[in-house]
Amino acid sequence: MTVETDVIDGILSAAVSAIGSSYPIKASGITFKSPDDGKFIELVLIQDNNGSETWGNEELFSGFLRVILHWPIDGQGVIPPSRVLADLKPSFAKGTTIRQGAARLLIYDVPRITDVIEEDAENLYPMTVRYQFFHAPA
Predict the structure, then answer these.
(1) The dihedral of CA 74, 77, 83, 89: what is its sign?
(2) How far is the C-alpha of 93 from the C-alpha of 60, rounded, in Å?
(3) pLDDT tens-digit profile of 48-77?
(4) 126 beta partners
(5) Residue 25 has what pLDDT?
């Protein structure tokens, strides 16, 4: 595997591990069928790898993972889905290191739970996890 794939595998595996079997997971490359109750978590990885910010052959891998909880409009308000994200948040505490192969990802900011996105049939509750890894090839 390459460092790039270790980075991707590391952050996504950490999220899958944190979620466990609590909710179905929708992510790129994973076969997914929406559950009957409409509750699931979507993982969206946005990479911002910028090699021009280093002095030599070093590489900077950075980006953020959006953990998006899909929740049907069920008349119970924002508290139940907000608790789900609050339970996931400690898995990505600022300063956490995620190790995968050659990658050592650092969660460098507090995970941010942002405002609900309201749609006709469901609400989306996003949380953003920011990571980075400075790699100096041998």
Answers:
(1) positive
(2) 21
(3) 876 566 566 778 889 999 999 999 999 888
(4) 68
(5) 96
